[in-house]
Amino acid sequence: MSILKSAIISSLGTDATFEGRNYPGSVDYCTAPRGKFADAARAMKKVHALLVAEWATDETPFGRGFGVFACYRWGPEYLIVKTALPADDPIFPSISDKFVPASRFERQMKSLMGVVPVGHSDTRPWIKFEDWPEDAWPLRKSFDASKKMARVDGRYKWIRAAGEGVYEIPVGPVHAGIIEPGHFRFQAVGEDIINLEERLGYVHKGIEKRFESLSWHDGARLAGRVSGDTTVAHSLAYCMALESMTGCAVPPRAQWLRALFLERERIANHLGDIGAICNDAAFALMLYQMMRLKEMLLRTNHKLFGHRFIMDRTIPGGVSADIDTEGTGSILAEMDALLKEFERLVVIYDENSSLEDRVRETGILIPDKARQLCVVGIVARGSGLNLDCRTQNPFPPYDRLNVKAPVLISGDVHARAWVRVEEVRESIRIIREILEGLPSGETTSETVIPAPDTSGFSAVEGWRGEIVYWLQAGPMGEVNRCMVRDPSSVNWLGLEQAVHGNIVPDFPVCNKSFNASYSGNDL
Amino acid sequence: MIRILRQIFRTGIVTEPLPPEVEAEIRDIGSKLEESVRKRFSRSLTIRQVDAGSCNGCELEIHAINNPIYNCERFGIHFTASPRFADMLLVTGPVSVNMEVALRRTYNATPPPKLVVAVGDCGCNGGIFGETYASLGGIDKVIPVDAVIPGCPPTPVALLNGILRAIGGK
Q: Is B53 a domain residue?
């Protein structure tokens, strides 16, 4: 029995039931009474599990009330705890005192679903803005998403800092560069940041609600636009959750091509990020050199797969783009050229002492904090946490590729940059291996609609980190709920902590080293 | 240092001419364009990019027109940090309800004469996000739009072409 499951059983005993049609079977799924929801969290904390996500469902179409879910991870294991809430009394015990990221998840659940976490110390809304009507809970079935909302008066209560010489710097939502909108409020003394509070939600487009009005097939297109820079990984995570529910067997060739797309997306974004980190430390040469290499990859994508970001090429049941021997040859040649150029630039990065001065010991997220905040992906691996779905929950073909995920413990800007450097190297190796081992055969298989009241889960290692989807089919087999957890939802918390004690001018380089998505967070 | 210099010289100038069909189109609007840029923008066009709710796909391509291969600065186009200095707002969408006020304020902060170009399918009409409680749809639902650049996301060439067309047309 898995460690998480036995921890739940020894803590909750017969109160926890393991049943229901939830997929894939490798994920443990238990139902606990409302009063035991926090006990389950305590049991998970005791065995050093990390919180993956927490979300709510409106299950009135099934004649039930609301559902509240928490998903935990320990090593390769995932476990989901569900508790049911009556429709007329939607309150549940908060787990935010046990898992820090639950504080934001629960604020969001309260804001968008109207389920109230009891014992949560922060009653402010999240994603929902102060000018929304208080009873606007878009994820409830009774909410008409096609109607415009009325605007009301309201004021957001910022965390304040006071004292001699303390001043505030409000930044955003419209930032100075070509980036997404969000608001940062710094409290500083002189140049030193004593506190940073993020306020996100500006690009909330109602994505989770939108899924419920689309067909399962069109959902893959919407997933590809949750965060445009991660289009492959999001579509893939959505498709895998759906395929687990329908028992769809994806042809091996399609699985390998999906991995090829995923690794190409990883390299392209890492190249851009390494360049941008250097640029924020005033080393523009690296930005332009890296952008040049990135452009080379995007052009090859366009030529071979018909889209620069390989958008909409991952579809339920397989992929909609294939590769021939000529294409294989051109990617192999491209990888050779890329690696040669890349290594040259890495030496320049490594030898530049003025750059080193800016990126080392800047924006440190210590391993202890990283663990408390349950951060994922590049941020986790830069702070000593060995988390990577490709090594811990390897779906085909990763079970045969033997991925080596780099882990650094210094937790600074350099660590997060260097994790990317190592990953570019590793992804080049993986792409070569994929192209050598690419099986022949079909690239799509028949897909069917999931059975009513089933759920599907998936976790995919996008370039930022673990992306999680949880799908629930309604009474007619339609989309009843699509929960999206972009890595940014947890990694944004890391940035707030990492900038403490740093100087304000170092914020851009710290921020860039996290490079969290606003759109993926705001949904 | 020697490595940096060697890398610079080895790379050389990688900026490309635009594809022939785009070049031709630019030539077509050439005289008008030159006159308009010279007259209205003193041969330099300053753009403030505003993300009014995009998925960040369009932003990737707007970044790309600044890369050395597309190099938009050769046309006198450059991006500014403040709307106060901008001749053009390059706006990606859909406009989220939570960005509506910020977009209006940015528009009002931009001195006239100003051009607004809506970028991407979502900027044009809301795209896959449609018009919902959280998404107002295309940019023209909130501020006046002078030109549109469709695509999901539009390629760098389409972006450059669209920007040049927008200033040529006015």
A: yes
